[in-house]
Amino acid sequence: MRFPKKFLWGGAVAANQCEGAYLEDGKLLSVPDMLLGGDVNTPRTFLPREDATAFYPSHEAVDFYHRYKEDIALLAGMGFTCFRLSINWVRIFPNGDDEEPNEAGLAFYDAVFDECAKYGIEPVVTLCHYEIPWSIVTKYGGFSNRDVVDLFLKYARTVMTRYKDKVKYWLTFNEINIPCMHLGGLSALYGLGVMEEEDINSDHRIPLTELKVDKQRVFEALHNEFVASALTVKLGHEINPDFMIGNMIAHETSYPLTPDPKDVLACLDVDNFHNNFCGDVQVRGEYPAFMWRYFRENGIDTSFITEEDRKILKEGTVDMYTFSYYMTNCVTVHEDAEKTAGNMTLGAKNPYLKASDWGWQIDPDGLRYTLNVLAGRYPDTPLMVVENGFGAFDKVEEDGSIHDQYRIDYFRGHIEAMAEALQDGVNLIGYTTWGPIDLVSAGTGQYAKRYGFIYVDRHDDGTGDFSRRKKDSYDWYKKVIASQGEDLE
């Protein structure tokens, strides 16, 4: 068998993209609840004032909150051994700084984890998957305020204690490195809860690409998340020594577009800044040397990185390295190169690769390459691919069937790549596809950008009855899991 017997097979979702029920049972607003939808060519917009004429996709999402039993049964039908999901911070502490947790929110996740246990599914729980309470943004300035570290730790302690016998695998911050990919806009708001006052108080729609955040403030906020993550690792091990606690990196694998040495060096800089910076802090427990040069050359005052914080980072390194992998990009210094899109990024187009309808280049071989590089950089740390998927326009046939061979082809190649990496000696422990059930796209806010093995009747104009149906890929992935990754036909 090319995959270990205990290899974790499953899928991944985020609360803000699937739950809905945005103001039910005591929940208040989180950052994604303020975002409107976009499309392939139009960026998502931010609207800080509720507008009855606007469509906020996360408000109902795909209604997992009311349909979790049906959905988990469907996932179990594919043979899932794990299910990555997030706890929505504002379901537990609606304002982010409440004295007592919201029992209705805690009870909901109790029910979800119990439903998983019924089918032998291990939850893999992300503590913060972009679901920063909106009041943390407006009242505290997001993670740029050091007080928010303590608020996050209170939240982490509450849920880790409550679910210490139901959840073994925890991730601290989803795609913590996203703010490094562009130092403002959607990345700073999603990842750090950081916005400028004039945008918070705006009364009109703002494209997320136009949000501006001070670079100094971004790095201070990111540092506070590093500290919060490290303290959470230490706390979690005190609550239950058997916890496996990981980071989560949006891995942007890049190649030099040409053999031009300047392209090679530019690619090195991108890889270091976008991927290795955050990975090194969380796995090795220290800021890498190249970041001190970056800080010097970009006028960043590093006095916020105290000796006490350095000790915390060293003591709170993660137990596993988890990451998302969707596509690869090319890097070049040549300005005439054709551009293509990615996971909240832009890069140079690779002439050897095909791409999705959203311009994301399809590169299974890049996953094997990435796994080997990571195994070399962090040889003592287990790896897990916790997001990998293919967003596409799916067509429902007259008989209700959905033939998504393109999705099967995508996953086949990436599972083959993981098998090869395992043969290379990579310590890979699990794989969760992104969006095993259709949900709201984080980047565009679309329903039309579908990822799931399970189709949800919900559309960008707000229509649809939320009914579920299986796509062809459902039975295919079921076969893959049953054969432990051997049967990929």
UniProtKB/TrEMBL annotation:
<dbReference type="InterPro" id="IPR001360">
    <property type="entry name" value="Glyco_hydro_1"/>
</dbReference>
<dbReference type="InterPro" id="IPR017853">
    <property type="entry name" value="GH"/>
</dbReference>
<dbReference type="GO" id="GO:0005829">
    <property type="term" value="C:cytosol"/>
</dbReference>
<keyword id="KW-0378">Hydrolase</keyword>
<keyword id="KW-0326">Glycosidase</keyword>
<dbReference type="InterPro" id="IPR033132">
    <property type="entry name" value="GH_1_N_CS"/>
</dbReference>
<dbReference type="GO" id="GO:0008422">
    <property type="term" value="F:beta-glucosidase activity"/>
</dbReference>
<dbReference type="GO" id="GO:0016052">
    <property type="term" value="P:carbohydrate catabolic process"/>
</dbReference>
<dbReference type="Pfam" id="PF00232">
    <property type="entry name" value="Glyco_hydro_1"/>
</dbReference>
<comment type="similarity">
    <text>Belongs to the glycosyl hydrolase 1 family.</text>
</comment>
<protein>
    <recommendedName>
        <fullName>6-phospho-beta-glucosidase</fullName>
    </recommendedName>
</protein>
